[in-house]
Specification:
Helices cover 21% and strands 38% of the residues. It is elongated and about 100 Å long. The relative contact order is 0.08.
């Protein structure tokens, strides 16, 4: 069954961190220029101060400046910037840690080590009257803080990374108040051309053009495909060359066309303007009806297995997978992925665009050049395979189906050849799932069986194939309303109910019957 979705919100610090440009690496030149200007020498009238995030730092010993470098007690500055610090007295080594950063320096030595990289210092750490002092700019900038000299206050002013992110986040929040809102018509006019329908040799879905010759879609749309085409609303057919990068857990993939896409692309942001109750518009190709537009609300923000989802009341259906979900500011906030059928609540979900942005940033030039279709989980052929080998494939590849109502299990797989030469594949469906959700998932079970027929026909093109999935359950009473051959007495007051719920037959053409 589908696990319970847990609501979550991005923390302000994480949001701000996404908004900030990547911090530059710590270069040797920036560290060598680590001295506070000679103006930092305290005058007799004013004691040198250290101010961190607007608050004066209470020091265990007075800061001082020497030869243009300001020194502060090591523990005070590390702690103020949220880092731990260890003093190894035997080697007189200072080791500071914060997140994935590690800083090591020795008293009297004009070099330090940051994450295994050696850098030079203008001045070494020193010990005075039993107190270990470190150069304040070097430590602060190593911990990704900014340092400025305030001559009027005779103070070193330090802004921590966290405080800078918080300030950026607050600035961003203020900017959002002035963003113009777009009507549904304006959204469609702006983005309709950038949404494509994707046809593979296995499935149909949707995609979002994200620049150059790249298209964003769901992983399940392109998985196991050996060929694919993107269709634009202008009638152009774009051949897909392969997959550039993918995240199976987030159900996302970036695919590449063999030629540039001469239509506007959609920007990949972080989808931060995703608020419960906000208006949204979806564009995709449900059931192959190209570039269908629907609107609704953000019903919830949820989080499951490390993936952020946007729950929406916007109607979607099979074929919408990989389509776009826009907010009313014209920002792509999600990729439509799945929904529950058989309900009037419109329980539909989109994967947050934050995962797509990360996927795009991780894609290398080498991946783009070498794009190719993912290896199939199925063999190219089963010609000559034994029945044991076929049964193993069935158990490995077809033992479950994730539906909109939960996961259906299939057990007791067998492969036999009957006297007429048919390859007959049989299994039992989870009886509880079928009793509770059979009618609601009949169409999904039908498509699953059709897919098996197609796949086995491609692997055994000369065989006549029959797939029979049965319901079976034992009862302590004789159930009524079944055909005579569907109820069997077992003795001891027990009866067994068994009947086929799926009968699919295929060769050059296909027949299927699903009992709901």
């Amino acid at each position: 069954m589908k696990t319970k979705l847990i609501k979550t919100l991005l923390s302000p610090l994480l949001v701000a961190g996404l908004l900030l440009a990547p911090l530059p690496g710590l270069s040797g030149s920036s560290l060598e220029a680590a001295s506070i200007t000679s103006k930092a020498v305290a005058s007799p009238a004013k004691q040198l101060q250290v101010i961190v995030d607007g608050k004066k730092l209470t020091l265990s010993a007075a800061a001082y400046a020497e030869k243009g470098v300001t020194f502060v007690p090591m523990r005070d500055i590390f702690t103020a910037l949220g880092a731990s610090v260890t003093w190894e007295s035997k080697t007189q080594t200072i080791i500071g840690r914060k997140g994935n950063l590690s800083i090591s320096l020795k008293v009297g030595k004009k070099e330090a080590v940051i994450n295994s990289k050696t850098v030079k210092l203008d001045a070494p750490a020193v010990v005075r009257k039993g107190v270990t002092f470190v150069p304040v700019r070097f430590i602060s900038e190593s911990l990704r803080a900014t340092v400025k000299w305030d001559s009027a206050a005779n103070a070193v002013r330090i802004i921590s990374e966290e405080a800078a992110e918080q300030a950026e986040y607050e600035k961003w929040l203020e900017q959002q108040k002035n963003l113009p809102k777009l009507t549904s018509e304006e959204l469609v006019d702006k983005f309709d051309e950038s949404i494509v329908m994707i046809m593979t040799n296995r499935a149909q879905g949707s995609g979002v053009v994200i620049g150059g010759n790249l298209i964003l879609t769901n992983h399940h749309v392109i998985a196991d495909a050996a060929s694919a085409t993107a269709l634009t609303i202008n009638g152009d057919e774009l051949k897909i060359a392969g997959v550039v990068n993918y995240d199976e857990k987030a159900d996302l993939a970036i695919i590449k066309t063999d030629k540039p896409i001469n239509i506007p692309s959609v920007e990949l942001g972080y989808g931060l303007n995703s608020f419960k109750g906000g208006k949204v518009v979806a564009i995709g190709s449900p059931l192959g009806v190209q570039n269908t537009v629907s609107d609704g609300l953000i019903s919830n923000i949820t989080y499951e297995n490390g993936i952020r989802y946007i729950q929406t009341s916007t109607p979607i259906d099979h074929g919408s997978s990989g389509g776009a979900l826009f907010n009313e500011y014209g920002e792509l906030i999600g990729i439509t992925t799945l929904g529950y059928s058989g309900t009037n609540a419109h329980l539909n979900f989109a994967v947050s665009v934050i995962h797509a942005a990360n996927l795009r940033s991780e894609a290398t030039g080498e991946q783009i050049v070498g794009a190719k279709f993912l290896p199939s989980s199925l063999p190219e052929t089963l010609v000559g395979a034994s029945l044991t080998e076929i049964e193993k494939l069935l158990k490995d590849q077809y033992s479950s189906l994730v539906t909109t109502e939960g996961e259906a299990g299939f057990t007791k797989w067998e492969a036999k050849r009957d006297s007429s030469g048919w390859l007959v594949l049989t299994a039992d469906i989870d009886p509880l799932f079928y009793m509770y959700y059979g009618p609601e998932t009949a169409q999904e079970l039908r498509m699953w069986a059709i897919n098996i027929g197609y796949e086995f026909h491609s692997m055994l093109p000369d065989d006549k194939i029959q797939l029979v999935i049965s319901f079976q359950r034992d009862y302590g009473f004789e159930p009524r309303g079944f055909a005579a051959d569907e109820v069997t007495p077992l003795g001891g007051g027990k009866w067994r109910v068994r009947y086929p719920v799926i009968d699919m037959q295929a060769k050059d053409e296909l027949y299927i019957k699903v009992r709901d």
